[in-house]
Write a structure and sequence with these properties.
Length: about 300
């Protein structure tokens, strides 16, 4: 059986990451089918000049899934966080349909990092870890690749999710703000997935990590101050307080606590979650790191914070 991958079914390809990922696969020359929930009201994006097939599927029905997977070499799941548990049924159907490669909906925190299961964020990500465990247990039937990416950088900058707000010229730094963490543009993640599927042999049954770059809040603040020519009003917040607020939210069943634990996981002093060169799959996938300042400039231009350069 040829190991090459040409046809790809993308679950959640209409979403936040999915649209970027589908475009990268199309640019990479793959034939793409987007699976959507039956009755979904999510708008179907245009990928002009490329064409994709949209196939409504009942994710609880093995028959519906299996029929959608006929003829697909790979399945990439970018399903919403709330639905990651559904992926075991999806994997079973992919196996039954003879799919060669499954990429689960990871795309964030490195869920295989030793000891992560003992942390709050690791507990909240148990659903994702269970899916990779399931793939490992079934790797004689289907091959898999997991991909950790750090923060999605472009929406984080555009929506001031990193606590640096160009519109109010304010910033809240966690602890000293100097802890480096890793982040990826969604376009970079799309290219990474495309390269994984172009090189199935060297990416088989592996959990990989990629990033556009490592950066700290303080470095970002300095870049944004320089680009906007504004001096920001800076305050500091203790990571222990953010963590405690997360615990309080969780006790009330408020899962927005995830964001508290995410910030502490990456940005607290001493967190140690920058992506080290020896941990990065960028070289294996032929991907370059990007220039933070150039990326931030473009994102601030796209949001109208900076005038577009000629
Ligand atoms: N690293 C980061 O900073 C970061 C940020 C956000 C997300 N993520 C991760 O990236 C992955 C994709 O997240 P995303 O934000 O791109 O997802 P999303 O946009 O919220 O959802 C993706 C698609 O999933 C489908 N969907 C939504 N709710 C569903 C449900 N309850 N059951 C089944 N399907 C559902 C929808 O497609 P249809 O309506 O067409 O079916 C939707 O377009 C997740 O693993 C998430 O944890 C990481």
């Amino acid at each position: 059986m040829s190991s090459s991958i040409n046809t790809v079914a993308v679950i959640g390809g209409t979403g936040n990451l999915g649209t970027h990922l589908v475009r990268a696969l199309l640019v990479g020359g793959f034939s793409v089918t987007i699976l959507t929930r039956q009755g979904s009201s999510t708008p179907q994006p245009s990928f002009s000049p490329y064409t994709v097939t949209f196939t409504p599927v009942d994710y609880s029905s093995p028959t519906s899934l299996q029929s959608a997977f006929q003829g697909q070499d790979a399945v990439v799941s970018v399903v919403a966080t709330a639905a990651v548990q559904t992926q075991k049924t999806i994997i079973d159907a992919a196996i039954a349909a003879g799919v060669k490669r499954f990429i689960p909906s990871e795309f964030g925190v490195h869920t295989r990092k030793p000891g992560i299961e003992k942390t709050r964020i690791g507990e909240l990500l148990k659903g994702k870890r269970d899916v990779v465990d399931y793939l490992i247990a079934n790797e004689d039937k289907i091959s898999w690749t997991g991909l950790s990416t750090g923060f999605f950088f472009d929406p984080a900058i555009k929506n001031s999710l990193l606590d640096i707000s160009p519109s109010t010229a304010t910033a809240t730094l966690i602890d000293s703000g100097t802890e480096p963490w890793h982040a990826s543009l969604r376009s970079h993640i799309g290219r990474a997935v495309s390269e994984i599927l172009r090189h199935p042999d060297i990416t088989k049954n592996q959990y990989l990590a990629t990033a556009s770059f490592n950066v700290s809040q303080k470095q970002l603040l300095e870049i944004i101050e320089e680009l906007t020519g504004k001096k920001f009003e800076v305050s500091h917040v203790n990571s222990k307080d953010i963590y405690q607020q997360g615990e309080e939210k969780l006790a009330k069943g408020d899962y927005s606590a995830f964001v508290n634990f995410l910030k502490v996981h990456f940005e607290a002093d001493g967190a140690g979650n920058a992506l080290k060169e020896e941990e990065s799959a960028n070289e294996k996938l032929g991907l370059q790191t990007e220039d933070v300042k150039a990326v931030v400039r473009v994102l601030l231009e796209e949001t109208g914070v900076l005038a577009a350069s000629a």
